[in-house]
Amino acid sequence: MGLRAYLLIDVVDDVDQQQFIEIVRELEEMKGIEFVDPVTGSCDLVIMVETPLSVEALVNKIRAEQWLKKIEVLRIVSIFERRRALNKL
User: Fold this and answer.
1) Contacts for 66 with CB less than 8 Å, ≥ 6 apart
2) Whole-prediction pTM value?
3) For residue 11, what is the domain's CATH number?
């Protein structure tokens, strides 16, 4: 198992429906992306990535896209890592 994360993506406002479909398909074809789900709410897309080397490299590739408005990275950690982080607070 590699490094995993969820990406919350906002797409620029001037993207039309067909362009949005093309963006989703393009993302689905990227190596390391497990799934892409369009959503409603505070973001437009939720993406799960799993990569053997670097989540940052994949995020940087997406950041270079003209259609990107905002990206938030939620790294997946084990419950033990999360618990240790909470204990430090």
Assistant:
1) 12
2) 0.84
3) 3.30.70.920
